[in-house]
Amino acid sequence: MPGTALLLAAFPPELAGLDAAAPAGWRVATTGVGAIAAAATAARLIAEARPSRVLFVGTCGAYGERLPVGSLVAAAEVLAVSLDVLTGRAYRPEVEVTRWEASWALPFPGVTVAVPPAITVDAEGAALLGTVAEVEHLEVSGVFAACQAAGVPAAAALAVANRVGPGAHAEWMASHARVSRELVAALAGVLVP
Fold first, then answer.
1. pLDDT (0 to 100) of residue 190
2. DSSP notation for 43-86
3. All domains of the chain in start order, with CATH
4. Which of 8, 16, 165, 191 has the most CB atoms less than 10 A away?
């Protein structure tokens, strides 16, 4: 139904049950993992549903110690970036869009979200990416790009599930389900019709 809001996550556990019981006025779907899959799926869903707005929810990794595991944040700005670009081993054409801003507000602290092409696994890379963003996530740039192209307001709410670096995957495995549930519970007031 046109005008319904669209609630997206990369995969079902990040919806913390909302895929089984969508909030009134919301269509719930998953995009798949990675910015390209997220962009393609979000564009298709936006064309089908013609939503009034899009909210992406998920987990992220924090750079450094600024945000503890369990922190809930909103993507104020999203930056598609790579370590090769930051170290000068690669560059992006000036006409390429690599930054997007959220177009509606959420009740969480706003952060810059880095979206690299893959998960950062070393401390040196995490420290370098931490100079341009507070957190790392893989899909939100694709969702924001699709929303911007369609003229649909977009926002993203993320829960910190790990520190970016060598131990990230084990920490994410231990906490992603819990922090996803906490994020969805904290969004109850946002998900009203």
1. 86
2. HHHHHHH--S-EEEEEEEEESTTSS-TT-EEEEEEEEE--HHHH
3. 5-186 (3.40.50.1580)
4. 8
Q: Answer whether 58's CB lies under 8 Å from 156's CB.
A: yes
Q: Which two tokens stand for residue 14?
A: 């990040």
Question: Per-residue pLDDT tens for 41-56?
Answer: 999 999 999 999 999 9
Distance of CA 72 to CAs 85, 110, 135, 185, Å?
28, 9, 11, 11
Q: What is the mean pLDDT of residues 25-35?
A: 94
Residue type, 23: P
In this structure, how many other beta carbons lie within 10 angstroms of the beta carbon of residue 16?
21
- Note every long-range contact of 124-130, with CB atoms under 8 Å and residues 24 or more positions apart, other chains counting: 125/83, 126/63, 126/64, 126/163, 126/164, 126/165, 127/63, 127/64, 128/83, 128/86, 128/87, 129/63, 129/81, 129/83, 129/86, 129/164, 130/63, 130/64, 130/164
Which tokens go with 84?
């090769």
Q: Quick check: 129 and 120 in contact, CB under 8 A?
A: yes
Residue 4 contacts residue 52 (beta carbons within 8 Å):
yes
The mean pLDDT of the chain is: 94
